[in-house]
Amino acid sequence: MIKKPSIKTITVKSLINVLSILALALLLITGLNFRSLSTQAIENQALAHAELVKAGLTAHMKAGIMDRRDYYLDEIKELHHVNALNIIRGDAVTQQFGPGKARERVADPITKQAFDAKKPVFILNEFSLQPTVRVIIPYIASRQGGLNCLTCHKVTEGTVLGAIDIELDVKEYRNHALWVMLGLVVLSIVAFALVFVNTARTIKNHVQQPLETLIDHAMTAYRQHQPVSSEQFNSREFANVADEINLFNTEILAHQDMLKKKNEELLSLNDEIESTLRETIYTMGVIEEKRSQETANHTRRVSLYSQLLAQKSQLTPREVELITAASPLHDIGKLGIPDEVLLKPGRFTDEERHIMMNHPAIGYAMLRHSRRDILVAAGIIAYQHQEKWDGSGYPQGLAGENIHIFGRIVALADVFDALYSPRVYKEAWSLEKVVEWLGEQRSIHFDPRLVDMFLADIDEFVAIYNQYPADKETEETDNVT
């Protein structure tokens, strides 16, 4: 059987998945936002430096001290930790003042892009050990502001005079960003752990333990016919379930009581039916006994002999019960034998003997259509009680253990009673003669194991005969059990 996960496991797994996705989304959003803010801050710092340089250069030009601008630029670089700072001349300035130094000329496409677009160009190199940002800011001639450069240059307004090329070290910004991200990760892990622990604890205290308690108490309530107390549960849901279990148990117990009562009635009715069937079978055996002019109590004695021998053969209690109840019908087939044959006092002719030997088949034909186990057993006994261990019996000529144990037991019981009792055609044999003859018929007529058990406790069988003697009718008509 596949072991299914618990509610706790399912909930925790689901929570882990949701929180993991949520944490990743929050970290991604926060990281992108922080990167955007950091980039904006870097760009603003670069623009501020450029404005400072632009203002300083304009002031130097108006003061006529442009030959000292390199000192000014070096001080700016040193003061503000600028990696590189260059002034790029535009075409108008080059025409007015000459090409200047080599580093002041447009040297790469990025610089040209800033001149053409007349907008700052930012190049952020953030994925290196020494992250930097390069900013190329165009210097556009304008009348606005206090630093009017048109008085120094003979150009129209809006002309790109040049550009400021600045490279800043942004390692501090990146490290700060990494620390912020690390803090967010740690905070997320701590929050995740707290939520996990709290959820697990909540599930255990308010779901798992109450559920286990409810199951245990429900089983106890069912066994002891007592209600489950809903007051012991803190949650409304479990209290409601407890109340529903009480209603369910009440209905089940009511149905069980009714079913138990019906079963008792059925058992009583079945016992009455089976008792009636036993009495009917016994009565039919007695009827056959009377018609055949058997000695008194023959049917009862054969039944009791068979019962005792079945017990000694260690048959099951049900088998003992069946052979005891069914054995009275062992000669029921004699009801189909004509009186002139059945009641003839002398020896039978061959034809009469043949007719008489049909009584096992007649008895079986009477009983074989029934499905009740007692009558099935009676059919077996009626059909096989004239079979012999060596196969010389009739009607089928069965031998050994091919003969049903019921047939073998009744055969021995029937013959013993016939020999030990007086009949109209003979005197009763002495016990010594009966014992001697049974010993001789061991493995010939009878099952040798049954003969051994019978003779070992012959006194018990004689006691049954003495209790129900052949010369006295008993007034008992109840079934033998």
Commentary on this structure:
By secondary structure, this protein is an alpha+beta fold. The chain is built from 16 helices and 4 strands. A hairpin with a 6-residue loop joins strand 2 (121-125) and strand 3 (132-140).
Q: What's the architecture of the largest domain in CATH terms?
A: Orthogonal Bundle
**Kindly state the mean pLDDT as a whole number?**
81
Question: What is the domain tally?
Answer: 2
CATH homology superfamily name of the largest domain: Hypothetical protein af1432
Q: CATH class of the largest domain, please?
A: Mainly Alpha
Give the overall shape, derived from the CA principal axes: rod-shaped
Q: Gyration radius, to the nearest Å? A: 59 Å
Number of strands: 4
State the share of residues found in helices, binned by percent. 55-70%
Beta-strand percent range: 5-15%
CATH topology of the largest domain: Hypothetical protein af1432
- Give the H and E element order: HHEHHEEEHHHHHHHHHHHH
Spatial arrangement of strands, main beta sheet:
1-4-3-2
What is this structure's SSE topology?
Blueprint (H helix, E strand, L loop, with lengths): L6 H57 L5 H11 L2 E8 L1 H7 L11 H9 L3 E5 L6 E9 L19 E10 L1 H54 L11 H56 L6 H15 L4 H10 L12 H4 L7 H7 L2 H9 L5 H12 L20 H16 L10 H10 L7 H9 L1 H10 L14
Antiparallel strand pairs: 1-4, 2-3, 3-4
